[in-house]
Amino acid sequence: MSKELFENLTLIASIFLLAPLLISIFRFRRFNFVQKRLLLLVLITVLVEIISWILWYKLINNMPLYHFFTIIQFLLIVNIYRTVLSKMFSKLFFIIISIGFVIFAIINTLFFQNLTTFNSNVTTLLGLIVIFFALSYFYALLKEVKYRTLESNPMFWINSGFLIYFSSNLILFYMNNTLFKGVTEASLILWGLHAIVNIVLTIFYTIALWVNPKKQNT
Predict the structure, then answer these.
(1) Position 218 in a domain
(2) In this structure, are residues 146 and 189 in contact, taking their beta carbons and an 8 Å threshold?
(3) For 120-150, what is each residue's pLDDT tens digit?
(4) Cβ of 58: how many Cβ atoms within 10 Å?
(5) Within-domain flag for 169
(6) Total of domains in the chain
(7) What value does the mean pLDDT of the chain take?
(8) Domain range for 110
């Protein structure tokens, strides 16, 4: 994959993030709790992408940005699952998971992967935890049907998007620093695929914000 194609794919992935924002303008008043939390995640993601692109074009290392974003992203995702998995896991469980993840991220940055390096250890752990939550949600969904039709359930689309995204990128997150040093054709291919999966995730975000849930998540 050429560097130009890679940059185009990442640009398209970033532009796609405007879709859920446009949907939110017209449907915000109908959003339930989960949709509002998803919107916050999308807004922060867009902000990070904008700053990342500015740093990229100024030839400034944007890795420090993602060290902080990974923590914020994790806490926002946990907040979403804390609501829908409250009957399966206690509030204390989510608090312990959150605190443990933040401590691990700080230790990883201080002693293993500094701010100028891709934090693959942290993103790998993030992926594993989100996959665990995603599978737990589908299990809970099988045990207790809260919606007559899954297509009208925002959390179903959010959860599906998370599962596809983090499952697809788990190996990439873990192996990036080990296999690829600097920009190579192989690394561009992998990160190009990452951009494509990002687009898929954004499509799921958009659907989740578009549907009108028949019941409110509290």
Answers:
(1) no
(2) no
(3) 899 999 999 999 999 999 999 888 755 557 8
(4) 8
(5) yes
(6) 1
(7) 87
(8) 3-210
